[in-house]
Design a protein that fits this description.
Radius of gyration: 24 Å
Number of domains: 2
Number of strands: 0
Helix content: over 70%
Structural class: mainly alpha
Distance between the termini: 29 Å
């Protein structure tokens, strides 16, 4: 595998992103909700994807590439999901696209799967990779549950029927802020943590000013401080372990 092979993979991915996202229009949205496999719009989008892929890949002798891209887009793009987890479905759909495009790339470059694994194996088997993965899993899951248990006595003092907000918004805000803090600590950018704290303080300032919402404001601040403390502690611990490995 050389630089040109990787460049070809990036070109195929660029063609997919261009056709799937940049050229996104109302007509493509109508395709997904029509339920007709051989609709004119569906065929048109698959054709655009095939032409873009062939032009950007610049593999002029691979005459089978446009039909392959056309069939992949037509088949995978047909399925829609209208349940409660559209984001998860979209991610899985894009992963399937990625797997199929990598398969086409392997055929174009005549790169064996064993060679790909030989490049990935040092990364996958490295202790730091698993330590990093575990640290992000910890701030996403167990630490959030622990913070919830710690703040539970104060949460019982709140009038939850009066408090209105987006469903699970606080959960995801906590996860994202801990992920950001962990990342900032690992890349040694502590000043960015200060900016994050300042930004969140400004957003919560109006709640702190109101005496009638004092309990809610204090509860939020306690959760925020715990989230920051755990995120920073996790980052420092992982950084220390990195130096020991």
């Amino acid at each position: 595998m050389n630089t040109n092979d990787l460049l070809l993979l990036f070109r195929l991915l660029a063609a997919h992103m261009t056709g799937e996202w940049i050229f996104q229009a109302e007509v493509w949205q109508k395709i997904k909700s029509s339920g007709k496999f051989f609709s004119r719009q569906q065929l048109l989008q698959a054709g655009v994807m095939a032409i873009l892929g062939y032009l950007l890949a610049a593999q002029w002798l691979a005459f089978w590439l446009p039909p392959a891209l056309f069939c992949i887009r037509l088949a995978v793009g047909y399925y829609t999901y209208k349940g409660k987890k559209p984001v998860l479905f979209m991610i899985l759909k894009q992963i399937l696209y990625l797997v199929l495009l990598v398969g086409l790339w392997l055929l174009l470059t005549k790169t064996g799967i064993k060679m790909v694994f030989s490049y990935l194996h040092p990364v996958i088997s490295h202790t730091r990779t698993w330590l990093l993965l575990l640290s992000y899993m910890a701030v996403m899951g167990p630490i959030g549950i622990l913070i919830g248990k710690i703040t539970e006595p104060w949460r019982k003092e709140l009038d939850l029927t009066r408090i209105k907000g987006l469903e699970k918004a606080g959960l995801w805000m906590g996860r994202l802020e801990r992920m950001l803090i962990l990342t900032f600590v690992l890349v040694d950018q502590y000043q960015a943590i200060g900016l994050l704290i300042a930004a969140k303080s400004i957003l919560r300032f109006s709640e702190i000013k109101s005496s009638k919402d004092r309990k809610e404001a204090e509860y939020i601040l306690i959760g925020t401080m715990l989230s920051f403390a755990f995120g920073i502690s996790m980052g420092i611990a992982v950084s220390w372990l990195f130096n020991k490995i």
